[in-house]
Amino acid sequence: MLRLEKISLKLGSFRLRNVSLEVRHGEYLVLLGPTGTGKTVLLETIAGLHSPEEGKIFLNSIDVTHFPPERRHLGVVYQDYALFPHLTVFSNIAFGLKLNGKPDRDVRGAVSEMAAFLGIDHLLNRKPGRLSGGEQQRVALARALVLNPYLLLLDEPLSALDRLTRDRLRRELKRIHGEIGVSILHITHDLSEAFFLADRLIIMKDGAVIQEGEPEDTLKRPGNRFVAELVGIENFIPAKIGSGGQVFLEGLGPSDPPLFSPDTDQKADKIYLTLPGWAVDLYPEKENNAYFSQIEMQITALNHTEAYMEIELAHEQGGQLQTTISRREATLLPATLGLGKVIQVGLLREGMHWVPRD
Prior knowledge:
- By secondary structure, the chain is of the alpha+beta class.
- It has helices at residues 39-47, 89-99, 104-117, 133-145, 163-180, 191-197, 215-220, 225-230, 327-332, and strands at residues 2-11, 14-23, 28-32, 54-59, 62-63, 74-77, 151-155, 183-188, 200-205, 208-213, 235-241, 247-249, 270-275, 280-282, 291-304, 308-314, 320-326, 342-348, 353-356.
């Protein structure tokens, strides 16, 4: 549905660098990256607000690189909704249809149908100033979807909402995608949002794509420390690769290091062994080969949230780990957790991966 070929663009001191990507027909693609990495600039380039210095943009197999925005047949929903404050909800949704010269009867039918689909048909006579943030977002979605676009572009669509509304709307986006089947490119810096919605993830840093794949694959096999941190990996254990592929951990004492098969072109002998928090198990079963190491560590911090307990651990040789457990899991542990307490910790083979230390 969308194909970018080596898009490069300079805006002031910022540059998009050889960005190539595809959004497949009916796919929900999420572009994930920190603020300032170029996600919005890329979206606006796709929409036709910026002209690339190099590269091409194809929509539905048509080269639209030099098409104006109105000829690209895209739906765009911005972070601030961009609704017309002086128009009613009906007129906001109908705006694009009327601009395209649709007859009034067709406009009324299309707006009514889309408003009912998004549960905002009771708001059609109100103006945006009398709507909640979630209601405004639904109006913005309706205005984009009613045009039946080739592709829906979403620019941080949930970031301005409170948590409860945000959770409801991301479920709504999943429903819209499932029922309408529209191709979606969604940009965000929110990891949970990306994992909840994405069929596929693309990671951006400093104006360039640095990794892409299905969310679960990206989580299990981040290509470098930046990607690992972005997808929520908490633990980076310094380690060295031996001549036979054996990995020796640093700062965690004697252990049974895992046997790796690093890529044949891997030159670095120093790596980080990466472990998500769920792969750090408290009070593991003894003699269980699911763990590549079982060690004693001291609890140095216990941080409570409404549903979870974040636990920081330290080894006497300087190594540190973090894990998170639910409050229910905490009640099922064989002993009570306490600050300063020394406990047995197991490191699960299933969660381990490695990235170059540089």
